[in-house]
Amino acid sequence: MNAGSPDNPVNPALGELKSPEAPFLQVLAHRSMLKAYIMAIVRDPHLAEDTLSDVTVVVSRVWANYDPAQPFGPWARGIARRVALTNLRKWRRPVATLDEDMLDALGEEMSRMGDEGDQEEAKQKLQICLQKLPASSRELVQWRYYDEASYEEISRRTGRTMNALYMAFSRIHGMLGRCVKKGPVIL
Amino acid sequence: MKVKSQSTETRELMLRYLEGTATPEELQRLSHVLRETPELRRECATTLRQHLHLFELGAQPAAQLEPNAPVVLPLDEKLVAFPATGQPERDWTAWWWGGGLAVAAALLLLGWGAGWFPGVNANFAVSGTEVEIQANENVVLAKGQTAPTKGQTLKLDRLTLASGTLRFRITSGVNLVASGPAEIEFIDAMHMRLVRGQVTADVEPQARGFTVVTPNGRVVDLGTRFGVGVAPEVGADVVVFQGKVEVHRADGNAAHPPLVSLLGGEAVRLNRRGTPTRIDSVVTGPGAHQWVVNGGDQDQDAVITAVTDNNRQRWSNRFYPIMRRGMNEGVFAWPYDVNKPRWWSLDGASLPAELEAADVVQTLNEELNNQNLELTLRLARACRLYVFYEDGATPPGWLEENFTDTGERLVLSPDSPTLPGDPGTRGSYQRVFRIWQRLISGPGEYQLGALLKENVHSPPFYMYGIAAKALDANQQPTAGEVRPR
Description:
Helix content of chain A: 55-70%
Structural class of chain A: mainly alpha
Mean pLDDT of chain B: 79
Largest sheet of chain B: 11 strands, mixed
Order of helices and strands of chain A: HHHHHHHHH
Largest interface: A-B, 65 and 70 residues
Order of helices and strands of chain B: HHHHEEEEEEEEEEEEEEEEEEEEHEHEEE
Strand content of chain A: under 5%
Structural class of chain B: alpha+beta
Radius of gyration of chain A: 19 Å
Shape of chain B: elongated
Number of helices of chain B: 6
Low-confidence stretches of chain A: 1-15
Oligomer: heterodimer
Distance between the termini of chain A: 36 Å
Radius of gyration of chain B: 30 Å
């Protein structure tokens, strides 16, 4: 096991892997990666949250099968994928997702982005960076992510085509990504 | 012709996938990118993470993006298709030789600077707000970072104080004192967000309009000194010491009428829903920028910690200022009276020793002649409670029955009574007040009564004054002498 890697962060609080809390703590330590991975499958923030809860239950149930010599991330992603696909079928949502290896590549990339502390910090920076967007972009973010309006709805409100909206959101994500990467100055 | 960079196109593909609108061809292209290009795979992961984080931010209770925050990006959105980082991409080169050279030259002539060119990661200007550190009083920053020192100039986006007091000046002309624990986000030189904690702002004329955004409302300066405190579980307190501010809804437009306008000496609390209610009293001092709303009980020096009255028909949002250890020669008796009367000793040199550094309450002159007035003091400890009542006026029953005339006197006057000059003008505003006292045995509430104009000689009429000073250990009163509730 590559202890200390982003995929398996060293966490003394985890204690013995045999303790009853161990599966929950492991899921918690990989929460952001798992949730993003699930999001890439179910593509709905509420379903992603529900699915993560289901995954936690399943991980706990099959914890005895986990080989501590192997990294937790890929093992948990395997479970998350199965649970997410099951949920998609249960909710009668389209299952047209990326191939498993593509999803896994995304999951690996998420793992490389740091531990839970790094993810939380990135979210805080993102919150600050949002205030630095042009007003028109901020309005789009408000509609899509805060009010959860669909692209179709935003298209109706703004009179912009869907293509133009995707282009605009792509630019917004680009600006936000660079802002978060560069890092707002925080004391 | 605008050409998308590979990064822009990849993000767009990823978003189409996440929104469930990607065509089979687009899904194929996205898979290809994920498989073949590590940099763009990272871009996809970043987009995925942000997509999720934005939904999470939006799902937080009362989440609302600041609708009127100023545009601080020196950036025309139409031009963001330029590559953001790293070396010029192939698409960019094509654009460059395809005629963009002329456009870029035009931009340069317009003075838009070198940051616009590929390879210079500057087209998203996260510059922060420039602040000059004026004083650091025992500042401890969160996460063990090094505290800034006096004289430093920094560009800040966020400031998290664990404890201590930091004084700094935003270069737009706003002098701020932040007291920890506090969390501040700097939106730009004219806007800041107070997430929690307390700030006091002294705004220079050129920075009129400076705005403090809180979760419960937006405080817009109209040339003033004011304080804002945010406790997420309670709401936001707005206290105006001088000048005027407007308080707007948190989600409202600044062009809309304000929820409330506050003048010097007025204060409101915005509850979690943003509804303003008057604040009864504010303790100020002993430091120049220290203040606390309805409290300060934990302060070891505190004697009077709160003042309330029974007037529920008040037309203003005036608060009772309680000046911690504020009784000294020439202290202001009221915060807003145009004549600005102050308390002086008879000789203009020294107050009676027992009054020096007592807590003093600036009473509200508008309550004069309110025959139903019940004014309640919250006292933190055993003390000598003083009432200053006009010499020669008929004392009300509650004063005569419960207090003792010390025989000592004070002068209420805009200027020192010893100031040479024509006593005619100044003298008409001078009054002599007698000092009445009673001993209070311990913490509790104590009630004072009304003052009627008919008991006072002639205008201008003044309300009585209040002060209190903690007893020394050897001054403890006997139990029968006092009646705190």
